[in-house]
Structures are given as structure tokens and as C-alpha cells.
Amino acid sequence: MEIKTERLILRDFTPDDINFYNELETHPKSLEFEHENIPDQKTLDDIIKQIFELMNDNLREKYSLIIVNKETLIPVGRVVLWKIDDSIREWEMGWIIHPDYWNNGYASEAAKVMIYFAFKELNAHRIQALCHEHNHRSERVMISIGMHKEGTLRGVRQFNHQWFGSHIYSILDSDIKKR
């Protein structure tokens, strides 16, 4: 699978992406709001194995795509889209950009094209995204791609023995039709 934007290519993983994936998922800045501990190699290998297995599903319900700079062909991050409730055609989306490529608008560009893909190709009705209550970068992405804040789930994330909330945003297929 491959989706192109003005500056990016979102595509399925290849074996050549594994080193980048490992670096992305273990970079301390990448983990600041997602994990309390750096994942070990076995965990990373298990996730990569699952990503490759999911790519071959006929009825694909999860897309984990590498985000590549179209001009340089260098990976800059990844975006994930997965079905969470078939009865209401609801999907959830997340993204992670390598800190070396922050502040370039890559997350917004990738997330926006994934929203259109989900509505057009997957017949999604609702897409949601969540972020740690202090992850202002991710929240800005949600706002910039047209998502609406539904609220904050209080005390649902624990880091360093402290509880934090998650902001939840969503966008509906009817929101896109209004534009």
C-alpha cells in the first residue's frame, strides 16, 4: 500500500525500515508521552512481526505505515490507523515523527491524508485520536487536521507513578462533507 501527498509517501513497511522503526520507538523524546520505559528488543521485534503479518490480511483492519520524505526518500515517522468499532464504522489513528523531523508539518500532512483514505476507501464514519494531556504537539496536529475536541479522559495514563489524562478528538465523515 502506498499513499502520496505533496511532500510525503506513506507506505507499508519493508525490511529496510526496521532499523529506523527501532530508533523511532526507542528515542527518549519520542517516548516522552507514550511509554514509561524504552521497549526492549524482543518487544520491538514482536511489533514488527505483527506489522508485517497485518499487511497481508485480506480484510485489513490495521494500517501501520512508514512516513517517508518524498524528495529524500528518508523515513521521518509512522502513522497507524486501526478499526475499533465495526458497528459504528469507527477507527482510531495515531502518529509518531522522529524528533529530528519535528516542526515540519509531517504529522499533520500524514494524518490528513489518512483521514481521507479512511473515509473514502474504508467507509469510516468516525475517526478518533487521543493524546496525553501534556502532549501539546499532538493536540495541535489534531486541531490542524480538523478534529474536534470531545473532552479529556481523566486519570487514564500512568507515568512515573502519577496519573494523567488523555485528550480525545474526533472527526466524522459529515465534517469532511461540510468543507
Word description of this protein:
There is one protein chain. Strand 1 and strand 2 (8-12) form a beta hairpin. This protein has an eight-stranded mixed sheet with strand order 1-2-3-4-5-6-8-7, with helices on both faces. The chain has a single domain, classed as Gcn5-related N-acetyltransferase (GNAT) (Aminopeptidase). The chain is globular, with a radius of gyration of 16 Å. The chain has five helices and eight strands. By secondary structure, the chain is α+β, with helices and mostly antiparallel strands.
Task: Please specify the SSE layout and strand pairing.
Layout: E1 2-4, E2 8-12, H1 18-26, H2 41-55, E3 62-69, E4 75-85, E5 90-97, H3 106-121, E6 126-132, H4 136-144, E7 148-159, E8 162-172, H5 173-178
Nutshell version of this structure?
With 179 residues, this protein is α+β, with helices and mostly antiparallel strands.
List keywords for this structure.
179 residues; alpha+beta; 8-stranded mixed β-sheet; 31% helix
> Order of strands across the biggest sheet?
1-2-3-4-5-6-8-7
Multimeric state of these chains?
single chain
CATH homology group: Gcn5-related N-acetyltransferase (GNAT)
Total of domains: 1
